[in-house]
Write a structure and sequence with these properties.
This protein is α/β, with parallel strands linked by helices. The chain has helices at residues 2-10, 15-26, 32-45, 60-64, 72-77, 107-123, 137-152, 168-188, and strands at 53-58, 81-83, 127-133, 157-162. A four-stranded parallel sheet has the order 2-1-3-4, sandwiched between helices.
Length: 189
């Protein structure tokens, strides 16, 4: 940083501006996934369109990258409430992964198991959607284990794969069908 400051001063940048920039750079970076999760958590609090709640699972880049997931969260926003692993309170960290017969190596996998435990016990979700990228090695294992746990709990589960050939129409159709399933299921129970 010092070499940048010296260079900026040598190039004529005002000293006050250099020090202001240094203070800004020195602040810890914010986690964009947490910021987006907080945005949707607040939006969900005022949502009155449906009593249904969906648990969203996946790596943060799959959940919050609108380009990658073809705007999945916005498509859900007008239809159901949803929760993501980043919305989970800290006291649930270790709650789900700790119940597995063997320790899970992947941090994101452990986070998803903790989130499922939280979603099943406190949030009472009606179904789960897992957003994954095609050919993700850890997700092949974690996804299968998650699906088994969710099906044992008697909840519907949808896995959406995203890759460079993902068609938006196919994703929309699968989301709509899944939401219809949840609506019909909630009326029947």
């Amino acid at each position: 940083i010092m070499s940048l400051i010296k260079t900026a001063l040598r190039e004529g940048v005002p000293k006050a501006m250099v020090h202001k920039a240094r203070k800004t750079v020195s602040k810890p970076a914010k986690n964009p996934a947490l910021e987006i999760a907080e945005y949707y958590r607040k939006k969900s609090e005022v949502f009155t369109g449906s009593d249904l709640t969906v648990g969203i699972l996946g790596h943060p880049y799959c959940i919050y990258d609108f380009c990658l997931n073809l705007n999945t969260l916005e498509r859900l926003t007008g239809n159901v409430r949803f929760v993501t692993p980043e919305m989970m309170p800290d006291q649930f960290k270790g709650a789900g992964a700790g119940r597995l017969p063997k320790s899970l190596f992947w941090t994101m996998g452990r986070l998803q198991f903790d989130a499922v435990e939280w979603m099943l016990t406190l949030k009472k979700v009606d179904g789960f959607i897992q957003l994954v990228t095609f050919a993700c090695g850890p997700e092949a294992i974690v996804g299968d284990l998650l699906e088994r746990k969710i099906k044992e709990a008697g909840k519907p589960f949808l896995r959406l794969y995203f890759e460079e050939h993902s068609g938006e129409a196919g994703i929309i159709t699968r989301l709509e069908a899944f939401l219809d399933l949840l609506k019909y299921r909630s009326r029947a129970c």
